[in-house]
Amino acid sequence: MKNNYIRYSIQSKLVYEHRYNWEQANNACLLPWSEVHHKNKIKTDNRPDNLKAMTIRSHTLHHLVERRENDINKRICPLCEQGTYHRIKRIGKYIYDSAVWERNPLDKSQRICRKCFRMIMKKIYGKRV
Predict the structure, then answer these.
(1) 78 with 112: CB under 8 angstroms?
(2) CB pairs under 8 A, 24+ apart, for 98-104?
């Protein structure tokens, strides 16, 4: 096993079991720019009904959206300790987490809620932003 994926040697060539199973179940050949996605996220569950062929780009985007949703739903503002829950917007090929979080103007590495951002900006500039 490499990267937790099961591999076999077929005709002295190493192949991933999940790719081989998908090809056999669908009677098709996967192209080099395609990947096989495990629907239940278990890399060793290679049943054909758990596998889905995707392009590398769509597979990457699928996991990016999934990670961003999990990250955003767990965010808590470090200043007011309030959590904000909202959905991700996908516009074309770009992903946005609706403008609820801003960078802290006093500490650029920190994300804060919009309410705290406005309060800090008002203290700095003396006006509403």
Answers:
(1) yes
(2) 101/72, 101/75, 104/79
- Over residues 33-39, the mean pLDDT reads 91
Q: Find out whether 75 and 101 touch, Cβ atoms under 8 Å.
A: yes
pLDDT in tens, 106-125: 887 788 888 888 888 888 88
Report how far residue 91's alpha carbon sits from residue 48's, in angstroms, rounded to the nearest whole number: 32
Element (H, E) at 55: strand 51-55
Asked if 85 and 73 count as a contact pair (C-beta separation under 8 A), the reply is: yes
Cα–Cα distance measured from residue 81 to residue 115, given in angstroms and rounded to the nearest whole number: 12
* Paired strand residues for 79: none
Q: Which of 22-26, 55-59, 76-80, 81-85 has the lowest mean pLDDT?
A: 81-85
Do you know the residue count of the chain? 129
Residue 122 phi, psi (nearest 5): -65, -40
CA separation, residue 53 to residues 28, 72, 74, 101 (Å)? 11, 28, 30, 35
**Gyration radius of the chain's alpha carbons:** 22
